[in-house]
Amino acid sequence: MIKKLALAAVLFAGATSAQAAALLVNWKYESPTILRAITLQDNVVIQDVNVGSGYNGGYGLWNGQTLSANFNFAFNITDALNNLLHTYTFSGTQGSGAFSVSFASAAVGPISPVVGPNIVATGAIQNVGGFGAGNDSYTMAFQTAAVSGAIPEPAAWGLMIAGFGMVGVSLRRRSKAVVA
Prior knowledge:
Largest sheet: 5 strands, mixed
Low-confidence stretches: 1-18
Structural class: alpha+beta
């Protein structure tokens, strides 16, 4: 009886370890100079790489897995006013142990939109796609550190500066009280 229980336990342990691991690769844009690629498995960080403000290169898959199929997807990140902030392109070739990422940010230089959906920067983690690698399944996501506000237009800056000037003039012209 004990031998049967031991054999059942070994078989069960082997069956659970062969299940696919669900991994989240979160590309987190924190500032014009910090773009981090964070891989999580069951909400535990297993990779955390600072890839910089503009990135065009490979990102290794976790635990030596290889891609199960070719994939290619891209998307644009905009602010609430539909201004283009960043572009991402993810691609990979079946059998490869890494996928390539191209990231461009308007904070670093001018960018052109990629063919893909527009996603609004909200500060939350938003899933944008996924792929399989060996026994693992990866979910790609992006996150901005904070919601990007609109940059005032030159006319708005002019009005604001003129307003401060008028306040300064009115304070300067105020009559002084004479003390008897």
